[in-house]
Design goal:
The protein is α/β, with parallel strands linked by helices. About 45% of the residues lie in helices and about 15% in strands. The longest helix has 14 residues, at about 170-185.
Length: about 220
């Protein structure tokens, strides 16, 4: 299978978990904007130095820098049969930027080889998920105190260290994040619907059920 995936959905919808599984099964890279920026900063690339200068001041990395980092990444050889974009694009402006990247990339994909997957889930379910989310500070494994709790309360199953709660995983912050998502990112659904590449799946299910539905829509 040769295909590019764009995973869309609000914070906590579960697309990160599905991305990891699909990436391994199809043997294509999972391109996460945050991880990519951290990689560039660690390697002290030109873009990494620019990004760090903004992050150190508590400012957002400019779209031009993010686009350049993504553009370089999708031009690497391991992307020639496809990749999964997670966290990009987040706006119409970034979606237009991605189209320009595709034109410049050495690896071309036809329209039927591109798919934007929207993980649809009610806001109240997401708020509950985020409030109950915990993660391991060592291995990064994510838990949910209600649906996927650790075997030993408060401890990572793998590392046996104390789990942590992200500072923004509170009900108040979660609601604000959804408002931002609906204002800035949700318009992408209309954008990709007009492009003819949008599919929608029910993310308000168990992990395995969501993955089964994901496999069905991407194989259609």
């Amino acid at each position: 299978m040769k295909k590019v995936f764009i995973f869309l959905g609000p914070p906590g919808c579960g697309k990160g978990t599905q991305t990891d599984t699909l990436s391994k099964e199809l043997n294509i890279p999972h391109i996460d904007t945050g991880s990519l920026l951290r990689e560039n900063i660690k390697n002290e690339t030109e873009f990494g130095k620019i990004a760090k200068s903004f992050i150190d001041k508590g400012r957002l990395v400019p779209i031009e820098v993010v686009a350049s980092v993504i553009g370089e990444r999708i031009s690497r050889e391991d992307c020639k049969t496809g990749y999964i974009l997670d966290g990009f694009p987040r706006s119409i402006e970034q979606a237009e930027s991605l189209k320009a990247m595709w034109e410049k990339s050495p690896y071309k994909f036809e329209k039927e080889e591109k798919v934007a997957v929207y993980f649809d889930i009610p806001t109240d379910v997401l708020v509950e998920r985020l409030v109950n989310r915990r993660s391991c500070p060592v291995c990064g494994k994510i838990y949910n105190l209600k649906s996927s709790a650790p075997k030993v309360e408060g401890k990572c199953d793998i590392c046996n260290v104390e789990l942590i709660q992200r500072k923004d995983d509170t009900e108040e912050t979660a609601v604000l994040r959804f408002e931002t998502y609906n204002r800035e990112t949700k318009p992408l659904l209309d954008f990709y619907q007009n492009e003819g590449i949008l599919v929608q799946i029910n993310a308000n299910q168990g992990i395995d059920a969501v993955y089964s539905e994901l496999k069905k829509v991407i194989n259609d």
